[in-house]
Amino acid sequence: MACPVANLTSVYAIQHDMEPALCARATLLSTILFAATIPFIIWLGQLVYGV
Fold it and tell me: Which end of the chain has fewer CB atoms surrounding its CB within 10 Å, N or C?
């Protein structure tokens, strides 16, 4: 949650004749979720650790 996956998954998918489009969609989704959840993770850390 809060950290995007590596973009190299698409490269590996191409090299191993897998589905690069699926990897690209997963990377996009991960990046969007990262942008949406990182403020929550920071807030939660401040709440828990009182920083």
Answer: C
| pTM of this prediction exceeds 0.90 | no
Tokens 């650790």 correspond to 49
Phi, psi dihedral angles at 19 (to 5 degrees): -110, 90
Is the separation of the CB atoms in 5 and 13 below 8 Å?
no
d(CA 8, CA 1): 19
How far, in Å, CA of 25 to CA of 45, rounded? 29
Q: Which residue do the tokens 């009182």 mark?
A: 50
Instruction: Give Cβ neighbours of residue 37 (< 8 Å, ≥ 6 apart).
Output: 1, 2
